[in-house]
Design goal:
By secondary structure, the protein is of the alpha+beta class. The chain is built from 4 helices and 8 strands; from the N terminus they run ββαββββαββαα. The strands form 2 sheets. Strands 3, 4, 5, 6, 7 and 8 form a 6-stranded mixed beta sheet that branches. A two-stranded antiparallel ribbon has the order 1-2.
Length: 162
């Protein structure tokens, strides 16, 4: 079983822990860490998205955040994000998503052909134009399941770098 911290509205652990599936089934607030891998090509930002494995219970074969995962009990957000860099998982059962996500941007060069993918989790990765990926997620394109809130944070942060 995987235990995660119950957190307050600001994302601070309350000192209580809960099993992850219970947090989702009961809508208990908890934390996740997301890393968005970006690059700039011809003046436009692109984002590397992972295509979830077809055997996943939820969102099989859909493009999602570059890397994300639940923050395990006692872990710090950045520590968890780095550990989950190659791992992403949601349960396919009905759940009420009550997560506070810590969002990170990774903009150093990444050769996607050299990434080691967990085939039980990720089928492949692919670069997308950031603005187009956002538009597709926002209109609930059936190829995408990435949370729009995360992409919005990335777009806002990158706009300050131009």
């Amino acid at each position: 079983m995987e235990y995660i911290d119950i957190v307050d509205e600001q994302g601070n652990p309350t000192g209580e822990k809960v099993e992850r599936s219970i947090a989702h089934s009961q809508g208990i607030r908890h934390r996740t860490a997301h890393i968005w891998i970006v690059r700039k090509v011809n003046g436009r930002y692109q984002v590397l998205m992972q295509k979830r494995a077809m055997n996943k219970e939820s969102f099989p074969g859909m493009f999602d955040t570059s890397s994300a995962g639940h923050i395990q009990a006692g872990d710090e957000p950045l520590e968890s994000a780095l550990r989950e860099f190659h791992e992403k998982e949601f349960y396919g059962k009905m759940f009420r998503d009550n997560e506070i996500a810590f969002v990170y941007i990774y903009s150093r060069p990444v050769d996607e052909t050299k990434l080691v993918l967990q085939k039980e989790e990720v089928e492949t990765v692919e670069w997308f134009d950031l603005e187009e990926a956002y538009a597709n997620c926002k209109k609930r394109d059936p190829r995408f399941c990435a949370p729009t809130g995360g992409i919005e944070i990335v777009i806002k942060e990158l706009a300050g770098r131009r």
